[in-house]
Design a protein that fits this description.
- The structure is a single chain.
- Helix content is 26%, strand content 35%.
- It is an alpha+beta fold and 133 residues long.
- The chain has one domain (9-130): Thiol Ester Dehydrase, Chain A.
- The protein starts with 8 loop residues before the first strand and ends with a strand.
- 26% of the residues are buried.
Length: 133
């Protein structure tokens, strides 16, 4: 793996499908009807079903593991602020930017942002990762 530099960026894009939402619910046990029931979701502030926030945030994990910093990266922490809903059918782009790299240890802090197909920020956060040696 090449050395990380402050400001270096990578992106990963994924369309959130109904099947993904339903599979995520089954895997995690989060069966909140706002995610699964069209009738219930229609009565909420969102007006329709929304994807699980952590499902959308998982695109960040995929970007860290596969793109920047890449294979062997291990999460130490992740802060997440959900800024706008993600709906089934939305395309979410995770943007990873190197904020800092420690000189004494293989640890980096990364700015993590997700935007939808309309360039609306849906997630903001920061990850601290252990870099592969």
């Amino acid at each position: 793996m090449s050395a990380l530099t402050v400001g270096q960026k990578a992106t990963r894009t994924q369309t959130i499908t109904d099947e993904m939402v339903r599979t995520f619910a089954a895997l995690t046990g989060d069966s909140n009807p706002v995610h699964l029931d069209d009738g219930f979701a229609a009565t909420t502030r969102f007006g329709k079903r929304i994807a699980h926030g952590m499902l959308a945030a998982s695109i960040i994990s995929a970007a860290l593991a596969n793109d920047l910093p890449g294979p062997g990266t291990v999460y130490l922490s992740q802060s997440v602020q959900f800024k706008a809903p993600v709906y089934p059918g939305d395309t979410v782009c995770a943007i990873i930017e190197v904020k800092s790299v420690r000189e004494d240890k293989p640890i980096a802090t990364l700015i993590t942002t997700c935007v939808n197909q309309d360039n609306v920020t849906v997630i903001e956060g920061e990850a601290v990762v252990l870099l592969s040696s």
